[in-house]
Write a structure and sequence with these properties.
Layout lengths: L1 H11 L18 H10 L4 E5 L7 H19 L4 E6 L4 E2 L5 E2 L7 H8 L6 E3 L4 H8 L17 E2 L1
Parallel strand pairs: 1-2, 2-5
Antiparallel strand pairs: 3-4, 5-6
Helix pairs in contact: 1-2
Length: 154
């Protein structure tokens, strides 16, 4: 159903000339990724994951989904250009990093994907992002705030 809906959006929309078209695909079995990649010929993939707690069943499943997605893209010869860990950590007022979802296993996922360390990013939790998006404010307004780091290189 997701593949059909995304397929209709891709084929039924006049996108004009594009440099990039990013499609946020759900985790899972990879059926959607496989169908869309074979139908539309993805030129690259960006893989997004979350921090992994080795003991939590849901986190192990999340990691398994990410590794399965990486393997599927590799099999289809779709290059993975970057790996992003979302909600990786937050910084308190003293600048200390806290990991509410556990320490990262991003490096082992990066190695599995065959990526260089410079191709990996950790995105922190930023309260200001939640506040702005909850009020339907554009994130670009945050750019004037000194010290706000939305992207943190791995």
């Amino acid at each position: 159903m997701v593949a059909k809906t995304v397929g209709q959006m891709l084929s039924g929309t006049d996108w004009g000339e594009l440099d990039f078209l990013l499609i946020d695909l759900p985790p899972g079995t990879g059926d959607v990724h496989l169908t869309l990649s074979q139908t539309y010929g993805f030129t690259a993939a960006i893989v997004v994951t979350t921090p992994q707690k080795p003991c939590a069943l849901t986190q192990r499943l999340s990691r398994a989904d990410v590794l399965k997605g990486i393997d599927m893209f590799n099999e289809l010869k779709v290059p993975i250009v970057t790996l992003i860990e979302n909600m990786a950590f937050f910084r308190d007022d003293a600048g200390r990093e806290h990991f509410p979802f556990g320490k990262s296993q991003l490096d082992s996922i990066r190695v599995h994907a065959g990526l260089h360390p410079s191709d990996v990013f950790r995105v922190p939790i930023e309260a200001a992002v939640r506040q702005y998006t909850s009020r339907s404010k554009p994130l670009v307004e945050l750019s004037h705030r000194p010290g706000l780091a939305i992207w943190a290189s791995g």
